[in-house]
Write a structure and sequence with these properties.
Blueprint (H helix, E strand, L loop, with lengths): L1 H11 L2 H20 L8 H30 L8 H31 L7 H29 L7 H31 L5
């Protein structure tokens, strides 16, 4: 069991692998919960989830630019500003524009499709959401307080707390994909 946990930690340490794991979990739910509706075309809900994830990314970055980056950049010392233009802004703008395009494309696909789901889907989504909320309040936030120095701790404890907070946050990132899948598709009717 410890070996499996270590392998999962290695996966969730890397954002793209964590994204892939979340997508795989959503696909497993898609197959398990919708296998009896094959004739109805259950890929409509799948594209709805892609649409929602794309939209969340697009709007989330829009809010980031307007509420965080733009107001903060003028306060950054001149010697640090090049990092924004060289590393942060290009990556954020890549995701911003492609999530906008993906939102439009998947929205058009969703518009043309219809599906049916079961109540088990909403219960699974709710359970995943509760796990994620627990992680935020009882693991991520207490460890972030240590990592950020809001709670007195030595450097080793701060580093350990930062790592646990990151891994738990990354776990929530993974779980957000199947959770969104369940929450969105549970509201669709064929």
């Amino acid at each position: 069991m410890a070996e499996i946990i270590q392998k999962l930690i290695k996966i969730i340490e890397k954002p793209y692998q964590a994204l892939g794991l979340g997508a795989a979990l959503a696909f497993v739910i898609l197959v398990l919960y919708h296998h009896s509706d094959l004739d109805r075309g259950y890929f409509g809900p799948f594209f709805t989830v892609l649409h929602v994830i794309s939209g969340v990314t697009w709007i989330g970055l829009l809010y980031y630019f307007n509420l965080v980056q733009i107001p903060t950049v003028p306060k950054i010392p001149a010697e640090l500003k090049p990092a924004i233009g060289k590393y942060i802004a290009p990556e954020a703008l890549f995701w911003f524009r492609w999530s906008a395009a993906s939102t439009v494309v998947t929205g058009l696909i969703v518009f043309a499709s219809g599906t049916a789901v079961t109540n088990l889907t909403i219960l699974t989504g709710a359970l995943l959401g509760l796990i994620m909320a627990y992680n935020v309040w009882f693991i991520i936030w207490p460890n972030q307080k240590i990592a950020l120095g809001l709670v007195p701790a030595d450097d080793e404890a701060k580093a350990k707390a930062a790592r646990l907070a990151m891994l738990t946050s990354r776990t929530n990132f993974v779980l957000s994909i199947p959770m969104l899948y369940c929450m969105v598709t549970a509201r669709l009717v064929g």
